[in-house]
Amino acid sequence: METSSSSSPAPSLLCWRRVRLLLWLLPLLAFLFALGGTGFLFLRSDIYSFRPRLPKVMKLVEEQRAATPQLPPFLRRCLAHEAGNDAHIARVLLAEHGLNHTSGLRWAVRSTFWRWSLKWHLSVEERQFLCCRFISGLDGHQGIQHLAQKLYQNPLSALNDHELASLVVFSRSPTRFISNRAKLDEATDRLLDEMQ
């Protein structure tokens, strides 16, 4: 009887270890399942939605490259500093391809997956060309060269660093800055301070 009473705690200890292991495994399995599901949905979006339109996307890149063969180095630094450029490009591309007629969670997921596809298929330089292509002066024309002419009456190559930075800032909110150059200058100064 003493033997049985002294060995009785062992099964309960073993049971508690199993419970603790299960408590660790369940969240891990849930995370892996969610990760796998997200990966599957992304690949589905990339294969059936983005890749068929990739030739048209690359055509836009080449059109902008022809318009601005050499982006000024400081402009590239400004574009690299802006974290939301890829999201902006994805939203504009979805609108151009008529895929923006959704709302809520589905729109957020679709634009996120297109942003990932852009990073997967296009280099940083190509995405910067696309960003320059989609800068709008709110007059029906697109492209950073047109905006440079509209704001400063000069080609891109003739602009100083402050003016180049202002083009990038302008692209954040054209409707806000088009009629208020003082706000554009203030926001440009903040960007330049952040970059230092």
Note down, in words, how this protein is organized:
- This protein has 196 residues and is mainly α.
- It has a single domain (54-195), classed as Biosynthetic peptidoglycan transglycosylase-like (Penicillin binding protein transpeptidase fold).
- The chain has eleven helices and no strands.
- It has helices at residues 2-7, 9-50, 54-67, 73-81, 85-96, 104-121, 124-133, 144-152, 161-172, 174-177, 181-195.
- Helix 2 crosses helix 6 and helix 5 (85-96) packs across helix 6.
- The longest helix has 42 residues, at 9-50.
- The protein is elongated.
- Residues 1-5 have low confidence and may be disordered.
Strand-helix topology:
Layout: H1 2-7, H2 9-50, H3 54-67, H4 73-81, H5 85-96, H6 104-121, H7 124-133, H8 144-152, H9 161-172, H10 174-177, H11 181-195
Question: What is the gist of this entry?
Answer:
This protein has helices at 2-7, 9-50, 54-67, 73-81, 85-96, 104-121, 124-133, 144-152, 161-172, 174-177, 181-195. It has 196 residues and is mainly α.
Which architecture would the CATH scheme give at its second level? Orthogonal Bundle
How many individual β-strands? 0
Briefly, what CATH class?
Answer: Mainly Alpha
| Main sheet characteristics | none
Beta-strand percentage?
A: under 5%
Helix coverage percent: over 70%
What is the count of DSSP helices, taking H or I runs of 4+ residues? Answer: 11
Query: Spans with pLDDT under 50 lasting ≥5 residues?
Result: 1-5
Arithmetic mean pLDDT: 86
Features:
disordered N terminus; 11 helices; mainly alpha; 196 residues
